[in-house]
Structure prediction request, 624 residues.
Amino acid sequence: MIRFKQGQVCRWRPDVGFELDGEPFYVVGVNYVARYVCSNFWEDWRPNEIRRDLDRIAEHGFNAVRMPVHWEYMEPAPGEFRDEGVGRLTAFFEMACERGLFVMPWFLVGVATGNYDISWRDGQSFFAEPMVSHAARHLRTLVGRLKAFPNVLCWDICDEPEFYNSLPGADKLPYDTERYHDWVDRTYRAIKEEDADHAITLGFCHFILLRNAGMDVRRMGQTLDTLTITAYPKQMDEDLINGFRSNWWISWMACLYEASHKGVFANEAPGWSDCEASEQNIAHYYRVTLWSSYVNGSKGAMPWVWNDFDESIQHLPPFDKATKELRFGIVRKDGTLKPAGLELQSFGQFVAKFPPHEWEQALPRAGVLLPQSHTLGMHGYAYALFHQYIFLRQAGLRPCHVWPDELDRFEGRLLFVTNAGRLTTTQWVALCDCTERGGTLVASTRHVAAPFNNLFGVTVEGVAAQRNDVVFSNCAPAFKACEHVTLPAGGARRMISAGRATVLCEDGAGNALVTQCASGDGQAVYVSYPPETMLEHIGPESLAAHGVHALFRAIAKGAGVQPEASCADPRVELDLRRHADGRELVIAVNHSRYPVETDIRCGDSTIPVKLDGCGVMWETIKGA
Prediction:
């Protein structure tokens, strides 16, 4: 338990995450709303019940809570703050402080499970005057009252501002991008002018990655002190909550948001309702997500939510329509932890023993180019980037996302360009420069530009619909593991003929499928039928066992990039870290619902592994 002292300040460092008195710590907390009301417990204030909840949260070993601060209750008229409400807010911080809990408030609540519109808004835009000035004043006032508490974790401007659009008169999606980002900038500055010490974030949901919501992810990353993950992956997968794709979603977002160079943690993930899945399946999802997010750079986890709502309010709005919202809790009515809560508790014990800032990641990096259009939602190509991330992790590589205007500073040996978004001619020239400097460029995009033929040493013949499955055939010796790997029919394919390029793999009809061409001090590899697109729709367990990772492993080896640890089974995600004292930490995460029995090779060591479905194993070994 943390024993806070007056004058302490929790700060954020992108490379290590949160720290107190210069000592980094990993957040293992939970979102909190009282079970007896949705979700404005400030208005229905029952301090004894809240104390009991905070006691239990602390007793289970968690170190932080995130909670909503309802705008109109705290400020019932413009500039008029409710003393009773602000007093209850400070009392909450005091209660949490006494129990060794950090607090992360999210402000400007208009939607928090239910709708809590601000009546005096009178249908005006949240992102225009006078509401922007009202929001800035609200934030300055409350932050000014709270900033001296030593258990302030960070400030969250607003949770899921994309859902403001559901309120009467509010801006509709997609938001006006300039207007929205002026709101982000001004609310950020309002807090920073009042408190320069604590980090500031904004809890937007993964929803904005899947469509153009007018919210520019990169611009938010440039403004905010850190990015956070709010995500519910079942929305992107027709499989069970602990299915293969669902189990990768949160960790991909951790990896993706590292492109902001600000660090990342999960402020509302994992989480799922046991109205739609068994407690055990949700626990399996928690386990894989927590460990895989740790492996992929997340600095904390705060699931939604602490407790189920009480059945006595299930007939009231919003629960009469939002039926699954009642059962997201990690603790039962009797106070015992559900299996998901036990997984969170166990994970917290692991990170206390192996804090990530003490262990340097040892697996090699692989750059992944982000199309500039990603900044306004990924539209139809989010899953292509997502699947490419999975394949790289299966190949033992550590993806590192790169923006086009950062290419001149990219120093990695491998850079992948997926079948996602269009690149400008200027960006293609920058990719040519990467190979000239000795890098290996790997492209599976169907989009071409003037430098394309010369860069890849091929002649583009055109685009053809692929009516038959594509089977890797006649593979070069270094690519023999790809032989018979099959990609489903149904996509468009860039037809090429090799000129200067060497054909590494053909399809069954003898057409060039994978080519390689020297370029300056480096090389350019082209895959003419994009696996990250064509495998989007196969079943999750078929994807889990698919052999396409062998292609990525062979390409990496050809570029002189070989992971020091490897696992032959593609269902298992592997991580290798080194401590300054010479120890190595090996972590294996089974993303499949089915058991796995395999071996992990790490240097001269072979570690037999037997993992349950969604199982995790870790072991420390003496380094070389």
Q: What stands out?
A: The domain at 24-353 is CATH 3.20.20.80 (TIM Barrel). The longest strand covers residues 102-109. The mean pLDDT is 94.
